[in-house]
From TrEMBL:
Keywords: Lyase, Metal-binding. GO terms for biological process: ketone body biosynthetic process; L-leucine catabolic process. GO terms for molecular function: hydroxymethylglutaryl-CoA lyase activity; metal ion binding. NCBIfam families: PRK05692.1. Transmembrane segments: none annotated. Residues 4-271 form the Pyruvate carboxyltransferase domain. Belongs to the HMG-CoA lyase family. Pfam families: HMGL-like. Its EC number is 4.1.3.4. This is Hydroxymethylglutaryl-CoA lyase YngG. CDD domains: DRE_TIM_HMGL. It comes from Thalassobacter stenotrophicus.
C-alpha cells in the first residue's frame, strides 16, 4: 500500500521540449526502464499536431514498440478529436486533456481561448469516455502565465469546475513555468479545494524557481497525495518561454520518503532510468 501516487510524465512533458529529434528507439528504451520502477501511471506520448510539437510525432510507434507492464497505466495527451482517434488506435490506457487558466498561454499553446478550449475538450472527454478511457485534466499556469503574468485562483477554479463537469477522474494543477511560491500555491489550493476534493487533485510543479519541493510540501499539507514529475528533471513546454525542467522524479521520491510517505518506487530501477534520461537531454 502506497501513501502517494507518482505520475511519471518524462516521456511526454520531459521530452517534448527537446529540440533535436530523439530516435523512437531511445524513447521506447526510456519507457521500458520507467516501467520497471513501479509507477502506477506513465505518460508516454502526446497526439498533438506534429506541426506544433515535432518531437511527439512518433507517439504511436512508442506505444507499439514499448513493453507493457501489468499494473501500469500508459497514457497520452490528446488536444482534439483527431488526437484522440490516434491515441485510441495506439491503444492508450487513458488520455489527458489540457487547458490553461490564463488566456495568453491558451492562445500560444493550443491557438484557442480558454472558453473555446473547454468546449473542445468536453467533446474529447465524452468520446474518450465512450471508448472506455479515463480522462485526466491538466490545468496549466495555475499561478503564473508566461504571457499574462500572475493568475488568479478564480481562473484556475473555472477550469477545474469545467473538467469536473466533464467527468475527469483526476485534475493535475500545473505550475507550468515554475514561478509558484508556497503562499500562492496555498491561495490557489484554498480556492480549488472548495470545488474538488484533494483525493482527485495532483500537484505538477516545475523546478525553475527552486521551490518545487516546497510547493509539494504545501500540497501535502492540503491533503494532495498525487504528484507529477519527470525522470532526470527533463522538460518544459515549447510554448511556455522560461519553463525549465519538471520536478525531477528522483528528487520527489527521496523528498517524499524523508517526509515519511511511501511511493512504491524502486530506487535502483529509478537510478537506471535517470542515468539514461540524462543522456537524452539537449545542450543546457
Ligand atoms: P491549429 O493550428 O490551431 O489547428 O492547432 P489546425 O486544426 O489547423 O491544425 C494544424 C495542423 O495540424 C493541420 O495540418 C492539422 O491537420 C494538424 P494541415 O492541415 O496544416 O496539414 N493537426 C493534427 N495532426 C495530428 N494530430 C492531431 C492534429 N491536430 C491538428 N491531433 C492544436 C491546434 C491544438 C492542434 C495545436 O495547437 C496543438 O497541437 N497544440 C499542442 C501544443 C502542445 O503540445 N504543447 C505542450 C503540451 S501542454 C504542456 O506542456 C503543459 C502541461 O504539461 C502542464 C504543465 O507542464 O504545467 C500539460
Ligand atoms: Mg510540466
Amino acid at each position: 500500500m502506497t501513501d502517494v501516487r507518482i505520475v511519471e510524465v518524462g516521456p511526454r512533458d520531459g521530452l517534448q521540449n527537446i529540440a533535436a529529434l530523439i530516435p523512437t528507439e531511445k524513447k521506447i528504451a526510456l519507457v521500458d526502464l520507467l516501467s520497471k520502477c513501479g509507477f502506477p501511471e506513465i505518460e508516454v506520448a502526446s497526439f498533438v499536431s506534429p506541426k506544433w510539437v515535432p518531437q511527439m510525432a512518433d507517439g504511436a510507434e512508442v506505444l507499439s514498440g514499448m513493453t507493457r507492464t501489468a499494473g501500469v497505466r500508459y497514457t497520452a495527451l490528446t488536444p482534439n478529436l483527431r488526437g484522440l482517434k490516434r491515441a485510441v488506435e495506439a491503444k492508450v490506457d487513458g488520455v489527458a486533456i489540457f487547458a490553461s487558466a490564463s488566456e495568453g498561454f491558451s492562445k500560444a499553446n493550443i491557438n484557442k481561448s480558454v472558453e473555446d478550449s473547454i468546449h473542445l475538450f468536453s467533446e474529447v472527454a465524452t468520446e474518450a469516455q465512450s471508448a472506455g478511457l479515463p480522462v485526466r485534466g491538466y490545468v496549466s499556469c495555475v499561478t503564473d502565465c508566461p504571457y499574462d503574468g500572475p493568475v488568479s485562483p478564480s481562473d484556475v477554479v473555472r477550469v477545474v469546475e469545467a473538467f469536473a463537469a466533464m467527468g475527469c477522474t483526476e485534475i493535475s494543477l500545473g505550475d507550468t513555468i515554475g514561478q509558484g511560491t508556497p503562499d500562492r500555491i496555498a491561495a490557489m489550493l484554498d480556492a480549488v479545494l472548495l470545488v474538488m476534493p484533494a483525493a482527485q487533485l495532483a500537484g505538477h510543479f516545475h523546478a525553475t524557481n527552486g521551490l518545487a519541493l516546497d510547493n509539494v510540501d504545501v500540497a501535502l499539507e492540503y491533503g494532495l497525495r498525487i504528484f507529477d514529475s519527470a525522470i532526470g528533471g527533463l522538460g518544459g513546454c515549447p510554448y511556455a518561454p522560461g519553463a525549465q525542467g519538471n520536478l525531477a522524479t528522483e528528487d520527489l521520491v527521496v523528498h517524499l520518503e524523508k517526509r515519511g510517505f511511501e511511493s512504491g518506487i524502486s530506487q535502483d530501477a529509478l537510478a537506471q532510468a535517470s542515468q539514461f534520461a540524462k543522456t537524452l537531454k539537449g545542450p543546457e
